[in-house]
Amino acid sequence: MEGFPYDPRDALRLLRGLPGDVRLHEPLCRHTTFRIGGPAWCFFVPRERSAFVEAISRARAEGIPWFVLGGGSNVLFPDEGFPGLVIATKGLRSLEPDGPRIFAEAGVPLPVLVSRGFPALAGIPGTVGGAVVMNAGTREGSISRHVLAVEVLGHDGLLHRIPAAECGFSYRSSRLKRLHLPVVGVELAASVDEGPSATELLRRRRDSQPVGLPSAGCVFRNPPDAPPRVG
Q: How far apart are CA 171 and CA 186, in angstroms?
């Protein structure tokens, strides 16, 4: 397609042998909640964490632009698309319970996590990986209160386990976001939420927001002296 600096055959070569779905010139409007965005040079949905890591490593090695896409909320691609590799985490949905802990792959949808006992996150779109990077939450609490550690792909090409205390969580941000570290998975503690139920939080959201319409998600930050509102 005109406008892309790489031959489509380069994409097939780049991802050869990696388990997953490879799509050339995939319209990104199909994968964002705002339903906006032109085509990606290559769109890859890995089926395994190792394929996710290897795809990023190969793109880095060849100097090809890459972008990790979760649930597509709070993301706005231009009509011209993305001239590189978009790696979607939606194929990485494994939940691995270990006693009072859960290891969630980056692509686990937040509603799935809510159903496993994290009601404060009810109504937030997106995936676990994106939620951790931006420390998503509501007035009832943020995901960081449950995080024990985050597995990321470092700039050195190795996987690193970063304890929650070193993630630099703040209001709708984190050190992971500032350093552009791709999240592979998240280790979470069992919920201790004692606030409103997920059903109640979803009712509040339906009563106060146009749920179901295309949007970019919650794109505004509350001022420092104002508590976060629901959503």
A: 19
CB of 84 within 8 A of CB of 55?
Answer: no
Q: What is the pLDDT along the chain (231 residues), one digit of tens a residue?
A: 556 777 888 999 999 999 999 999 999 999 999 899 999 999 999 999 999 999 999 999 999 999 999 999 889 999 999 999 999 999 999 999 988 899 999 999 999 988 888 888 888 889 999 999 999 988 888 999 999 999 999 999 999 999 999 999 999 999 999 999 999 999 999 765 556 676 666 666 665 666 666 655 555 566 666 554 433
105 found inside a domain = yes
* End position of a domain, from candidates 88, 121, 154: 88
Q: Do 29 and 121 sit in the same domain of this protein? A: no
Q: Provide the CB-side half-sphere exposure for 170 (13 A, CA).
A: 10
150 shares its domain with 202? yes
Nearest Cα neighbor of 107 from 119, 122, 95, 123 is: 95
How distant, in Å, are the alpha carbons of 56, 112, 125, 175, 211 from that of 77? 19, 26, 18, 23, 22
